[in-house]
What we know:
Layout: H1 2-23, H2 38-41, E1 52-55, H3 60-68, E2 77-80, H4 83-93, E3 97-99, H5 106-113, E4 118-121, H6 126-140, E5 143-146, H7 151-158, H8 161-166, E6 170-172, H9 180-190, E7 198-208, H10 217-227, E8 232-235, E9 238-241, E10 247-252, E11 255-261, H11 266-274, E12 278-284, H12 291-297, H13 300-313, H14 320-325, E13 327-335, E14 341-349, H15 351-367, E15 374-375, H16 378-382, E16 394-397
Parallel strand pairs: 1-2, 1-4, 2-3, 4-5, 5-6, 6-15, 7-12
Antiparallel strand pairs: 7-13, 8-9, 10-11, 11-12, 13-14, 14-16
Helix pairs in contact: 1-13, 3-15, 5-6, 9-11, 10-13
Amino acid sequence: xxxxxxxLAIAAVAAGxxxxxxxxxxxxxxxxxxxIPNSILNQLPEERKGQVLIYGAxxxxxxxxxxxxxxxxxxxxxxxxxxxxxxxxxxxxxYNYIVLPLENNHDNLVKVLKHFEIVLHIAGxxxxxxxxxxxxxxxxxxxxxxxxxxxxxIQAELDRDEEFKRANIMVMPAVGYDVVPTDCLNxxxxxxxxxxxxxxxxxxxNYTAAEGAQASRGTMKSGLEMLGRPLLKxxxxxxxxxxxxxxxxxxxxxxxxxxxxxxxxxxxTSYVSTGIPNIEVFQVQEGQLPAWLLRVAQSGAGRRALGWxxxxxxxxxxxxxxxxxxxxRIVSTVSNQIGATASAALITPEPYLLTFHSTLIIARRVIDxxxxxxxxxxxxxxxxxxxxxxxxxxxxxx
Length: 398
């Protein structure tokens, strides 16, 4: 027994040292990387019109977008920080690539971005990656879209609206599943009644369940950033803190369901798109988050340790079976002060598959000249029917 306890004690100490090691904040580069040689810059497109850079191309979502790009008549250049992951993907697709770190690398980012009309920024968590890319696109005059669902990141982008307008570029966050289908549906129902004051969105992520459905590593790590921040909702036009998320129990077509309030990005994007002052988003709850996960995610060291575990042990993303067979259902309901209401539902394909298409549809719109300067949202610029261009999407009034 004494031997076993000794072994366990040593294992506990080793685990603690290991978690301390992996949870340390990564140091920023002390000095900027060397300037990119002209021999590499000269391989980039000479004329930026119509040129697309996919940054973060080798992650699960970036790879899916890169593989689908040609179907939208887009021949991108792929970019990221890891050449060992970037080069095989670029070679397999026949695309050029460029190795390009984000940290402390502003001048090189600007030099590269000046060769492109738009950058599809697919590398999260955007808590850390959005600002250096945004600083660079402003100076380079390059349009920008990303996939963030992190409310604080979207708010920071909104706060720079005038700066983006002066640069004559469009910055459009959240062009994937979060929030293209919800934002388009919210605009659709908002137009059905006069002066809506309340918007409620319900997400059923497993409307048609499929084996192998799961979040990608990037989504999980972005989710950790949200868990470490105050829970907010849109009330009276302002973002206000909640002590605990609201729970709603209901019977839906004979199924007992629990709806859990979540900090979906519509609280900012659909406020911009519709002007509705009160917005709540719920998801049909599938199990519960462990209490220990919430506690660990409250600390920076805890989030870094969990991020390391995700990077090293979590599956890369959903299986092909899930992408082909899973469906989600979104219901949006609006009401106003005189009691008028309107509801509609979307059925969508698997969220990552939707994201591959929605990102490229919007990129195609931008290079075709359909863009507006400043911070923009999908529903405000492209209207409620953009989502209907995505294969497998259907909409019905309720």
